[in-house]
Amino acid sequence: MTTQYKKFTRLIAKWPVDNSKAERDLGKFIRDKVKAAFESNNKNNLDTEFCNRQYVSLNKLADNHYKNKYKRTNTSTATGLNTEECNVILSTEVLEYLKEENKGQFNRINIALSKRALATEAFRYKDHTPVLLNKVIKHLKPSDGDVFIDMTFGAGGHSRKILESADCKLITLDRDPIAFDKAQKLGEEYPNRVTPLLGRFSELPHLLKEKGIRQSSIDGILFDFGCSSMQMDNGERGFSVSKNGYLDMRMDAGRDPNQITTRDVLATANENDLYKIFKIYGEEKKAAKIAQTIIQARYMIKNVDTTHELVDIVDSCCPDEFRLDKLQRPQSNATKIFQALRIFVNNELNELNYGMVLAKYYLKLNGRLVTICFHSLEDTIVKRHIAGNIVNEVANPIPLRYLSPLLVQDQDTINQFLDTPWKAVNKHVEVPSDEEVERNPRSRSARLRAAIKIK
User: Fold this and answer.
1) Cα separation values, 364 from 65, 158, 336, 388, 418, Å
2) Which residues contact 142 (CB under 8 A, 6 or more apart)?
3) Which helix (H) or strand (E) holds 336?
């Protein structure tokens, strides 16, 4: 409610009341709408969607949006044409002509949309589209008798393709119980070839020990970091900006009762902690303002419990911003905030670092590593592990450009610091093709790196 009230207050400031127009004045109309919405006794049932529609419409009028969009040749106080001019210009013949033209245009648009929908349908998977599938298989090079670990099973798109490519064995790992169930069903399709495991990267050594699998015994390891499509598409999990649901975001889906939820974070963290989460994990430029607004909402109104409530708060802090994604499509202002909270709640970056360390110990000599990252925080950790830029098994948090070359003067010391068991297969990251991005927009940010264990 506070978000809506702030938006309408700014709108009121844009358009003063003109008493000379009486009941036809837009300024008075805006004020009447605000009064009706926010001074009623039943504030809890405020229609947020209706308020948003009203705000967008009124704001366009206040900004003179339609005058700029539809240029007028004549000027007057209202329509730009008097009654006689309207009768002359908009004759019956002209109106009929306009109707026919619009009808043809709409038919052409509908035909084009139908063709595009049919073309897209041909490439659509049943419930999940694995990213960079062919490139993953190219770098893993499955052959008969190999043993692979899919560290992020998800919906199983990559795993299924690996099993189809060769008569190999596959160990699947995922922290989500729903993904674990899918892995068990895949095991039924491929008897004695799939070993499903439920847990985080940090739990893998214990899980592999129970199965009798030792270090240096795996031929290839695949990581597909980030949030799976199954989790994003389920509004109840709280991952999605567009679907309303309680702010949960636990990838374990409650498997660990002690794990905090996003609601817990927003209800208990102080302003400085929220700022750090948004700034470090989300790289959000308005982190301070958003953190302050969440604290104000928490003390003045209520805790932030749902995804749409969080989106409303973030939008109120970015009233004049219009963000675009890498495909130049409209993007929610809250996307980076959701990313930051998800990473924090699931301890993703520490788990990612742990996974890279485990890959080094469990792969055979000449074993193959393939990683798919979706944002710079993940990709930086992977890149530094492969390059050997690590300190005590942790990716160096300080960029090399900030280090003085005068600190190290002999080659032996430099070699010791940059010692790495990996040889990068691709010098630069590989990205999806334009065709793949078109049929699966979620792949637009994917970055693939491949490496071979050489010592």
Assistant:
1) 64, 21, 38, 18, 21
2) 148, 162, 165, 166, 168, 220
3) helix 335-346
**SS3 sequence of 100-139:** HHHHHHHHHHHHHHHHHHHHHHHCCCCCCCCCCHHHHHHH
Amino acid occupying residue 233: D
Contacts of 194 (CB under 8 A, 6+ apart): 159, 163, 169, 170, 171, 172, 183, 186, 187
How many domains does one find in the chain?
3
Same domain, 324 and 277: yes
Give me the domain span that covers residue 257: 231-346
- 333-378: pLDDT as tens digits: 889 999 999 999 999 999 999 999 999 999 999 999 999 999 889 9
Question: Which pLDDT tens digit goes with each residue over 108-132?
Answer: 434 444 444 434 333 333 456 788 9
Is residue 339 located within the same domain as residue 244? Answer: yes
CA pair distance 293, 316, nearest whole angstrom: 9
- pTM listed for this prediction: 0.69
Residue 271 lies in a domain: yes
Can you list the positions of beta strands (E) in 137-270? Answer: 147-150, 169-174, 194-198, 218-224
Which tokens in the block code for residue 93?
A: 């013949």
d(CA 194, CA 186): 7
Name the nearest CA neighbour of 8 among 39, 40, 26, 33: 33
Count other C-beta atoms under 10 Å from residue 167's C-beta.
Answer: 12
For every residue of 383-422, DSSP letters joined together read: HHHHHT-EETTEE-SS-GGGS-GGG--SHHHHHHHT--SE
Tokens representing residue 172 in the block: 């699947």
Q: 242 and 178 share a domain?
A: no
Tell me, yes or no, whether 337 lies in a domain: yes
**CA Rg, the chain, in Å?**
28
Tracing tokens 């498997």 back to the chain, one arrives at 255
CB 61 within 8 A of CB 29: no
